[in-house]
Design goal:
CATH topology: Rossmann fold
CATH architecture: 3-Layer(aba) Sandwich
Radius of gyration: 16 Å
Strand order of the largest sheet: 3-2-1-4-5-7-6
Strand content: 15-25%
Mean pLDDT: 89
Structural class: alpha/beta
Distance between the termini: 41 Å
CATH superfamily: HUPs
Number of strands: 7
Shape: globular
Helix content: 25-40%
Low-confidence stretches: 197-201
Number of helices: 10
Length: 203
C-alpha cells in the first residue's frame, strides 16, 4: 500500500525488529484498526534496534523476519513494510520525520506495547517523537503497571485520552496518547526465541 499525495488515510505504525513476528503483534494491530478507526496498520520491520544491539541482541536474517511477519499479519489492512531498511533508517524519530515528509496529509499514529512504553524515555529524542504523532500503547500482561508508572506516562499524563475515546487521538495535534487495556496476548518474541532450542532438542 503506497499512499498517493491526495491520500488522507489514518495509518497506525507498529515498529520493531519482529524477531520473530507473533500473534501479539497481530492482536495489537487488529485492536488498533477497530478502536482507533484506522484505514491500515503498517508494520515497520527494522533492520535493528539500537537499544537491543548494545546488549548483544541476536537477529534472524532481515528477509527471514520480513517474510515471517507477512505470514503472521495475514490481513488486507496490515501492511508489512521494509521502509526503514530501504531508507537506511534505524531510529523511530528519523522514521517518523521521513514518513511525515513524504505524506504530510496522512494522519499517522504510533503503536506500541506496554513494555515499550515503560522504556520509551530511553528512546532517542523521545520527546520529539511524541511531538510528531499521537501514540497508542497496548496492554501486555505483566507490563501495564510499569508502563503507566514510567517516566513517559507521568510526564504526558495531562495529554492522555481515555481508551473509550481512543479514536480521537488520531485527529489531535500531538502530544496525545491513550492506553488500550483490552489486549491480553502474553506471547513475546523473546519467549519464542528461547523456546525454539528446547523444541529442537525435544524432537
Amino acid at each position: 500500500m503506497i499512499p498517493q499525495r491526495h491520500d488522507t488515510s489514518r495509518i497506525g505504525l507498529l515498529g520493531g525488529s519482529f524477531n520473530p513476528a507473533h500473534e501479539g503483534h497481530r492482536e495489537i494491530s487488529l485492536e488498533a484498526l477497530k478502536l482507533l478507526k484506522l484505514d491500515a496498520v503498517w508494520w515497520l520491520v527494522s533492520p535493528g534496534n539500537p537499544l537491543k544491539e548494545r546488549a548483544g541482541y541476536d537477529y534472524a536474517p532481515y528477509e527471514e523476519r520480513l517474510a515471517a511477519a507477512r505470514r503472521i499479519a495475514d490481513h488486507p489492512r496490515i501492511i508489512v513494510s521494509n521502509f526503514e531498511q530501504r531508507k537506511g533508517l534505524q531510529y523511530t524519530v528519523d522514521t517518523l520525520e521521513a514518513l511525515i515528509d513524504l505524506w504530510p496529509q496522512i494522519r499517522f499514529v504510533w503503536l506500541m506495547g506496554a513494555d515499550s512504553l515503560a522504556d520509551f524515555h530511553r528512546w532517542r529524542n523521545w520527546r520529539r517523537i511524541v511531538s510528531l504523532a499521537p501514540f497508542a500503547a497496548f496492554n501486555r500482561p505483566g507490563f501495564a503497571e510499569a508502563a503507566l508508572a514510567g517516566e513517559t506516562a507521568k510526564e504526558l499524563a495531562l495529554f492522555r485520552v481515555p481508551s473509550g475515546r481512543a479514536a480521537e487521538i488520531v485527529d489531535m495535534d500531538p502530544p496525545a496518547w491513550t492506553f488500550i487495556e483490552s489486549t491480553v496476548n502474553p506471547v513475546s518474541s523473546t519467549e519464542i526465541r528461547q523456546r525454539r532450542p528446547q523444541e529442537k532438542r525435544g524432537r
